[in-house]
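Example record

The entry below shows one chain as it appears in the dataset: sequence first, then structure tokens.
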Amino acid sequence: MTSLSQKSAGLGELGERTLRKVRRRVMPLIVLLYFVAYLDRNNVGFAKLTMSEDIGLNAAAYGLGAGIFFLGYALLEIPSNAGMYRFGARKWLARILITWGIFATAMCLVNGESTYYIVRFLLGAAEAGFFPAILFYLTLWFPAAQRVTVLGIFILAQPVSNALGAPVSGLLLQMDGVMGLQGWQWLYIIEGIPAILLGLLTPILMTDRPRDAKWLDNDEREWLAGTMEAELAVKSGAGNHNFLAGLKDKRTLVYSALYFGLVCGIYGLGLWMPTIVAALGKFSTPQIGFIVCIPYTVAAVFVYFWSKRADRTGKRAWHTAVSMLLAGMGLLAAGYLLPVNPVLAMIGLTASAMGIYGAIAPFLSMPSAALTGAAAAAGLAMINSLGNLGGFVAPYAVGLLNDATGSNQSGLLFLSLCLCITAVATYLYSRKRPEGDAALDPAVAAAAAATTGSTAPTKIS
């Protein structure tokens, strides 16, 4: 019997050496790209602190514009990922980076509700395909058994982007009057330009597939290419290598719905966190930035620990559900503690950030393990497209609730309900499926059998 926790050792010296090189070469660039992407889509939460008064936005209008990003994102997600599959990750990601960098910088030009909605929509349309393209790219370089940890490293960019971006954004808001521009305009300009620069560098720094990796030794390149092709062959019996098959797969629709609930929590909290913190006391914008940094810093540490634990045990569904329940309970506590005790409310917000970001890697590893080949490109795009509509619904709903009640409490309770329902549904659906429990995954079993030299299937315990 081969324990799932021993799978890393089962790679052998060659496998360990190869994947170590791949992680060192691939992951820094991937994390940096996602860091910039997350900064550019979420910095509107800080810009709102001064921009709303300048251009005349109420809470509902801000929430609608913050969320409308995801309508453009959803509409072009699948066509964009089809382009990535056709033209390769290097060229397509460069195109995405340059166009979204242009529109992220153009946010400095908004002067009212209409222009705010239009540029946010165009920003979402420009960024469409980025996230699922990265997920698909990782499926080409890392075996399924090692993918949760890799996804965890990738997802670390979200809380780290918020943690580092928060104080920087707070300080940039102090640039009022420099060259005749407002601080929020400088925020968009300074944080938008890096995407354009990275778009120019990505085709040089990125490699499309393992067989193109001249930075690997010949034996390493052959091992990695052979391993990934063998894993693909194990799952070929599912007949899910056609691009359209990924769109028709029932698992794609279910994971899209579940991801919708998780995304409600991600962006409902992320896009409103600066406003919630501002309501806890009389703080300057730099102070708000440093306070917002706290929950995201704690969340980043938790994401790394939780992802490695999910990888070690293989219980992806369980780790996803527990993490979302933690997030839901944290938001519930914060909602009731906001008017009572700011410190305890911040502890609740910190727990919610830990749970929300801790759930992402084990959740996304499930559809990426279930789908392969072209079907993965299509399926992951559709999951991200439909799921990210939660990024439209949640910020707008929170804005409407805040305008209706005059407080942040009702919005936090709404987000808590979304996450708790999604946690239960995810566990019930995925707990007995191969992608939800790696002990049931035939690809993992085949890999374990190969490493022990057995020709019979090896039970994973």
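Notes for this example: The chain has 20 helices and no strands. Residues 1-9, 447-461 have pLDDT under 50 and may be disordered.
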